[in-house]
Specification:
The protein has about 350 residues and is mostly beta strands. Helices cover about 5% and strands about 50% of the residues. A five-stranded mixed sheet has the order 19-25-24-21-22, with no helix packed on it. The protein has a four-stranded antiparallel sheet with strand order 1-3-6-5, with no helix packed on it. A four-stranded mixed sheet has the order 2-8-7-4, with no helix packed on it.
Length: about 350
């Protein structure tokens, strides 16, 4: 009885140890998929144990994720690998075009380990490429140790369709979301930001998740938007194409915007506010001729973006200094009242 109990404990301990091993639990393409493009990207989802939450850096290398024609394990295809931590996807992109009508194996070696040093369970995926014929310019690559130049197989480039690209306020940040029906050629997406809509600088980038039937949804954040208008544009870097800008949007963040600088007597003063949190605002008008404050009003503003139209009494025509003050932002502008 005691021996049986010890044996049961040992079995349970072994099972618990095995359950803790990280492993691959889903992939694209699916097992033994057929007629894939010759530039297909492969991504697989990984499962870490509660004790391990990432890769051991020195093992997350191309040598531990192998791609080769079936039955020809010595003919390794060079790959580029990246990891999307939010959805636990490893993206594997061949550095050269695959051959048409060829069976390929993607192999995850047990030398790949998590941050505890526990090896992944070995995994193999089999898939097959298709015809891969289209009238696309050929380019040259270096393949093999002899540096022989080989023309790449022409492939069909599918159109990349962006369903939406928008920015919205999330507390003190701007959340940037886009939906896209992808092509397998896309390596990564990048988002650039500008304060004038003309000169853009890179904000962030994220690797492509690969091609699927449905739209892929991507989300990035601008943690420090500039005061006033922020212009964002979305672009891609592709395996066989140059950098391409796809869409542009804009967002008014952390500021006060005067919508009109010339108004008529007794007309409403139009303003736009973006508030990261609920705040009070004071609006005042001072005559530049007499230095007299002719109008003053305080209001409570809710969080978020909102337009505010302030009814003004009838003033004499002329130039006035507009003073707007919230708990964190102030604006000083000159407006003109004229008939």
């Amino acid at each position: 009885m005691k021996k049986a109990a010890i044996l049961l404990i040992n079995i349970l301990a072994i099972n618990m140890l095995m359950a803790q091993k990280p492993y691959v639990f889903s992939t694209f393409p699916i097992q033994k998929a057929t007629n894939l493009s010759c530039y297909t990207s492969i991504f697989f989802t990984v499962k870490f144990s509660p004790e391990g939450s990432n890769f051991l850096p020195e093992t997350f290398i191309e040598d531990n994720i192998l791609l080769y024609p079936k039955g020809k394990s010595r003919r390794l295809i060079p790959v580029k690998i990246s990891f999307n931590p939010s959805i636990k996807n490893v993206i594997v992109k061949p550095k050269e075009l695959l051959d048409p009508y060829e069976d390929y194996i993607l192999e995850v070696s047990n030398r790949l380990k998590d941050d505890r040093g526990i090896p992944f369970t070995p995994y193999k995926l089999e898939f097959k490429t298709g015809e891969c014929t289209a009238n696309v310019p050929k380019i040259m690559i270096i393949r093999g140790e002899d540096e022989e130049k080989v023309p790449l197989t022409p492939v069909e480039l599918k159109e990349l369709k962006v369903s939406s690209f928008q920015a919205m306020a999330i507390n003190d940040s701007v959340e940037i979301i886009w939906k896209v029906k992808e092509t397998l050629l896309v390596d990564e997406y990048f988002v650039e930001r500008s304060s004038d809509g003309k000169t853009f600088r890179k904000l962030t980038s994220t690797p492509s998740l690969g091609s699927t039937q449905n739209d892929q949804v991507y989300t990035v954040y601008d943690e420090a938007p500039t005061v006033g208008w922020n212009y964002y544009r979305l672009g891609t870097r592709s395996s066989l194409q140059d950098i391409q800008v796809l869409e542009q949007t804009k967002f008014y963040a952390s500021g006060i915007e005067l919508l009109k600088r010339k108004i008529f007597p007794a007309e409403e003063l139009p303003l736009r506010f973006f508030n990261a949190r609920k705040t009070s605002v004071v609006v005042a008008l001072k005559s530049l001729d007499t230095d007299e404050v002719v109008f003053r009003q305080a209001k409570l503003l809710e969080q978020g973006t909102q337009n505010l139209s302030l009814p003004l009494p009838e003033f004499a025509p002329g130039e006035y200094e507009l003073i707007i003050q919230t708990s964190s932002i102030s604006l000083l502008e000159t407006i003109k009242i004229s008939y």
